[in-house]
Every structure is written in C-alpha cells, then in structure tokens.
Specification:
about 425 residues; alpha+beta; 16 strands; five-stranded mixed β-sheet; homodimer
Chain lengths: ~425, ~425
C-alpha cells in the first residue's frame, strides 16, 4: 500500500524556480549585509525550551514546537532568531569584538493557525549591531535597511521611524507612564483601526485630555523637521533622545537620502522590549502588504542569560513576505527557470566524452552547461530543453576537427555554425 | 535568576569565522552543481512521521526527533535528504521535466549518541539525477563528484566504484543470492576489519569455496581494465552491467581523468537500496577520514509513495566532515575572519555622513566597507580592527577637499595619502 506523499499544513516544498529565486534574493541581502561589515552566524534549530521561552508565557508558548527528546530533555524548535541571538551573545561575548554586527538568515517555526500567506516554517533575515548605544549604529541600521531594498531593485520605499524614549517622556508628562504598555498597544493599531477607535481606547485609559495630547503627538507633520519640533515640545523640550533624532535626520540630509525616511511618531512596535528608535518599512507601490522590515533599539539584549549589559539595535526582514512583494512588483529574476544556460545535445554515445569536454570548457568560461545523458531522438532533447527552460543548445559534430561546434538559440531558432569551444563560449555569453 | 545560555549536546553555534568558511564551501559546491545543470530545491524540516519512516523500523526509528504537534499530528524532523526527496518526487513529478537533476543542501537531525565529530544536527549536500537509467547519467554524477573536490582545491582524491548488479550476478553463480544482504554487510567491513575476519564471516555464511570466490571477486587488480575483466569472468561473462562499466571507464580514459577513479569491487554500500554503480570517495592525503562523498544507482526512488517508476543515481557529501577535511588539508580561505575589507575611522560625528559617503562609493566598487559608529579614541578603533581582523583602514580628512582620503594598511602599517574615493578603491583592491 502506498503512503500519501503529503506535507504538513503551513509547510512547503520549493521547486527549482522558486528556490532559485529565494537564493538570488538571499544572496543580494547577504552581499548587502557583508558590504556593511555584518558577519554571518548560525545557531541550532533545536534548543532547550527553558532557553527559548525565558520568562515565557503568552502567545509564544502556544505556538512552540516543543517536545521531550530521546534523552527526556524539554526541547523546542526556535520560533525567532532574536532569542537564540541573545543566548549566543551571552555564551560567546568573551570571544567576540564589540560592537558585534551579525546577520542570520534561517528558518524559524511557529505552530500557529496558518492563515493565507502565513506559514509555520518561514525564513527570517535578522541583522543587529550589539555592544554600543550610539547614534552612529542607529543610523547605520537605517542605511542598511534602505540599501537592502535598493539593491533588490526597490527604490520606492519609506522607512517610518520614531523613538520610544521621546514617547515615554511625553507619557510621563501626562502622568500616564504606568499605562505605557496599554497605550503603546492602542497606538500601534492606528493604521488598522483608524483614529476614532484609538481615541476612544486612549480616552478610556487615561482621560480625554491626555488622549488628545497623545493623538497630537503621534500625528506626523508635513516635514520631518516639524514633526521633530512638535514631539520635542510635547515631551518637554530637548534631551539626548531628541538630539539623537536630530543628528540622524541631519546625516540623512547630508547624504541626500532623507526622502526615504519619515519621522512617524505613531510607530511604536508594541513590544516593551524596545527603548530607543523604532521603525517599520513600507513599499510605496504595495501599501497593503504592511511592513517588510522592522525593528528598533533595545538597551539590554541578553539580560535573561548574563549580567553583561549588551545594548543594541536591529532589524528583521521576513523573506517570504519580501518574495511575495518582489513578485507583485515584477522585481524577480524572470525567466531564470533553470541553472542551465546551454544544453549539449547527445547524438552518439561514441562522442559522449567529447560532449563533456566541450561542456567542461564552457564551465571554465563561467557558464552552466549540461550534457543530455543519452542518445535519444533530437525531438526528445529539444522538448527537454523547452521544459527545463534552457535557452541555448550546442551540437558537437562527429569527427575530431577544429570548430566542430554549432550553437542553436532555442528561442529565436537561429544557428551559428563552425565554432571552436572558446568562440561558442563568447557567443553564448553574448546571447544570454 | 539567570538562565544558563547552554545548548544541546550534539548541537553547535557557528561564530563568524566558521560560518563564513561554511558559506564559502557551500557556494563552491552550489556553483559546481549548477555548472552541471543541477537545480536547487528545498523541503520542510518537519514532516509526517509516517512519510519519513516509510516501512520504518531499525536504527532510524530510534534516532528520530519525533513528537506530537499542537494539532496532535505524529511529526518528526528529517533525518536525511533522500526520504524527503523521494516524497518530493512522488508529489511533483507531474510538474517536472525528466531527467530531473536536483541538489539540496540542508540540515538534518539525528538524536544518536554523539561521538567525537558526530553531531545531532548536521548539514548534507545531496545531488541526484532521476528519471533515467542510462550510463551517461552515472558518468555525469562521477564527473560532478570529482569536479566538486577539484573546485575546492583537492586534486588528490580517488573515487572507488563498483557495480551491485555485477556483484549480485557473481553471487547467483555461487548459489548465494539469498544471502546477498549478509554478504554485502560482511564485505562492506573489509577496510575496517581486514581480509581474515571477512573470510571467516563469509565462510560461515556460504562455505569456504564460495568465500574464496567472493574474496577473489572483491580484490582490485593492478589496473581498472584487469579488474573489470576479472569480475566479468567471475560473474559469468559480459552483460549490460559490465558493458556499462566498460563504457564509463572508456569515457574517463577519453577525458584523461581515469587516474581519479578506481574500480574497487569491495565497495558495496551495504544498503539493499542500490542496484547499479556504487561509489565512495577517499582523499589520498587523509586516508583515515573515510569516505567524504558516496552514493550509487537505485532503480526506484519513490516506490513507497507512487507507482511511477523513478530510477536514478545520486551522491551525498557530509558538509561537516568535508570542512574538517579541508581544515586538515589547509584548504580553507585562511585569514578571512571578517567580511569587512576596510574600516572607515570615525574622528568626528560632524563628518559622519562623509564617512558613510566614502563607504558607499567603496561598496559600489564591490568592496565591503564599514564605518566605525562613534568618535571614540583612535586606539580603540585600531584595537577593534585588529580583533575583527580588518586588514585596511581609511581616514577621511576634515574639510570637504578632493583627495581627502588616506589609506592605512593595518598589517604593514604603511600609509598612502591624498586619495580620491576611486583611487582608494583601486589601492584597496591592489592590497587585498
């Protein structure tokens, strides 16, 4: 009896076209991250549950793939890359230089209800700069976020940023600091629910007057400078946090990239965890998709595991959502359905070593060349090239003469005859 | 109270130097695989236990990370890449072209006793060609195995190959075919236990005369041609299998690579699964490490899941063992401890945008350039560059003049003054 070849709900296979595109996008991100001096790390998929859950409780708990291993240890699959990074830093900071900049691109697992477009196994791309609390590190993360999208061909983006320290100070002035978490949650919903609902919610929490001040605070003005001036005033004047925002905006202006950044005090990122700048990234041409890259500054990454204080700033891209966005924007490497650039046709097994010798020379010239593995009818080999999406075909004429190759463009059906292997390589590169 | 930042036995963190080297080796393999037209795929880490275990039983069962998920499904983490590939082919062969050549580089999980150098989470690199039973596909896998090591800088390797069909025919002639599995297991141990023990074991199984014939069969002769002649004779003469071996050896000779291949009839690969050629790869300079790449031909990949007959040939490299081998051979990319090629020093926050502008131009020239994020003492910045392993430093002079850069080689302590950004890029490339 056959076993049904099914896979778990919320999990996926990646066929060559999809996996090739994932790898292309990953490679662009990796190159961008390394361009800024961020180094790759990796951590285990499976960890002690105690380490992953920390204080634990809440939503994360329910989503966890948790079990007892063969040694009866309580273990779980990682549900994000932040917690393993905190554990990693606590374990290794003695062996590392600070500030330590790392990126980590890996699968994470959450057994949540899988809605449309939500997966239980998905890939996150995290990058953090840890060990310094300076404006320069904040600025660099924002630059790197912008450059990641530019390098993927997306120019129309806006990074919305805010500062949790300034917001907290404004709340303290209102005597509402003890309600901070609830207020953050209420404000965080403004893009979804609209101002009316947030006003009602805030009014119930801290009274109508304070609600009005909070709504004034979170409304962006016409320019970043005006927004900064307003939130500085509502927070009670300049301090280190507002000066840092001014410094960062000044550097953006000097680099002529301020148009990509939008000071938006309604950005709060909900989580209690953040203490400094916070940000989300929106694609102008795909407003409905939500933020494609978000994060912020935290003042202590690894406090669960070590007394060493590790302030940092970081950001995370969800690869799956990014790939969906690139597809909608038409920014995929279209047509690259197969790695193979040229198929060497197989006419006779007697000449098989010569086919492979030609393919070898093409590969040395940097091309991807495959040899059809048996002497089947040409029609079959053409059909194979068509199905695999191979653009060019190479024929090796029988007999050992020079210039015995002919190249056929399988798209235009043009043929170029009497080529040497090196001439063929040049002609292939011209046509790709 | 702090949580100890420990990880599970048999699992590892990869710090930047190790992870960078892993990625370099992966990239070489991926480029080699794609050069031969093998396309990447991916499958889930977690699958239904029923799908992964198939007929199940035996060792695999005990090593499995198996549990019930939140929906009470019986699930398990993949323990190899072959079973998921079989399930993948059964599910998708309608949407694929045949022969289908794929590679898959991914982590697998086995909860076995972790001896020295054995991990519970490790990375396999599998490549298979499925949907054809032809000599050309066998030859291509062998070529690709060889080329993978050559591209990693390893020339001194020998791929030992044999043919299970020829061996089985020799056993049938001895009337010992029903003992095939036990005989295969006994022969498989000859490199570890020596001929004496195998002779005793075979004698007990099928008598002293048959044992002698089997020992004659599995002994390699001085040349591949002589070995082929002998096993052909002991199997009862030429047939399709011996003709295929002759064809493959002939193609190797024509491509002048026969020295990398060694017809070794003692190679059996133990598993019942293989039906045609089988092979293991040994590094001449590291005989003790065992096979670094092995596999063979099977006549039906996905029979557990589909009636579609899918013959194929494939091979697998254990990335962790390969990395250990490369390190012992001194074939690592030594000295590349960090992605950063040049550190832009930060002297004054007023010039911070200029530092990033210089870094941006260097990145556009293909270099990895990071800016130190704050205006700390130069001694601190030099110490940071030293610890991170950054070879070059760039200083941007105050004031907005042209040619305001000076480049310092942090290894030789030489300095080149008065460079434009493009001149600096050229000088950096010259020195790397």
């Amino acid at each position: 009896m056959l076993i049904e070849p099914k896979i778990l709900k919320g999990f996926r296979d990646f066929l060559p076209a999809a996996e090739t595109e994932r790898r292309r996008v990953r490679a662009v991100l990796e190159k961008t991250f390394e361009g800024f001096g961020f180094a790759p790390i990796d951590t285990p998929v499976l960890e002690y549950t105690e380490v992953l859950l920390g204080k634990g409780g809440g939503e994360t708990d329910k989503q966890l793939y948790r079990f007892r291993d063969n040694g009866d240890r309580d273990v779980a699959m990682r549900f994000d890359l932040t917690v393993p990074f905190a554990r990693f830093m606590a374990a290794h900071f003695h062996d590392l230089y600070l500030p330590f900049k790392r990126y980590h691109i890996a699968k994470v697992f959450r057994g949540e209800n899988s809605q449309k477009g939500r997966y239980r196994e998905f890939t996150q791309c995290d990058f953090d700069s840890v060990g310094t609390d300076c404006a320069g590190a904040d600025f660099e993360i924002l630059l790197l976020m912008r450059q990641s999208f530019v390098n993927l061909g997306i120019q129309n983006l806006r990074i919305h940023l805010s500062h949790r320290g300034v917001f907290n100070r404004a709340l303290r002035r209102l005597g509402a600091e003890n309600l901070c978490v609830d207020i953050l949650r209420a404000v965080d919903k403004i893009k979804k629910t609209g101002e009316g609902e947030v006003r009602a919610c805030l009014g119930a929490l801290c009274g109508d007057a304070a609600a009005q001040t909070i709504l004034d605070f979170i409304r962006a003005e016409e320019t970043n400078a005006r927004t900064l001036a307003k939130i500085t005033r509502l927070a009670g004047g300049e301090d280190e946090d507002t000066r840092r925002l001014a410094l960062i905006l000044g550097w953006m202006r000097a680099m002529d990239i301020e148009a990509s950044f939008f000071l938006d005090p309604s950005i709060t990122r909900g989580l209690d965890y953040y203490t400094g700048i916070v940000y989300e990234t929106f694609l102008t041409d795909l407003p409905g998709i939500g933020s494609v890259c978000s994060g912020g500054r935290y003042n202590d990454l690894a406090s669960l595991y070590t007394k060493e204080k590790l302030p940092g700033v970081g950001s995370s891209i969800g690869l799956d959502r990014l790939l969906a966005a690139l597809e909608e924007l038409g920014q995929t490497a279209a047509g690259r359905r197969s790695p193979t650039q040229v198929l060497v046709f197989c006419t006779s097994e007697n000449d098989f070593a010569r086919y492979h010798e030609a393919a070898r020379i093409l590969r040395e010239a940097g091309l991807n060349a495959e040899v059809y593995p048996e002497a089947r009818k040409q029609a079959n080999q053409f059909a194979f090239a068509e199905k695999k999406g191979i653009p060019l075909g190479l024929f090796v004429k029988p007999g050992a003469g020079e210039n015995s190759l002919s190249l056929r463009d399988l798209r235009s059906r043009e043929t170029v005859e009497a080529l040497s292997p090196l001439q063929a390589a040049a002609e292939i590169k011209r046509r790709l």
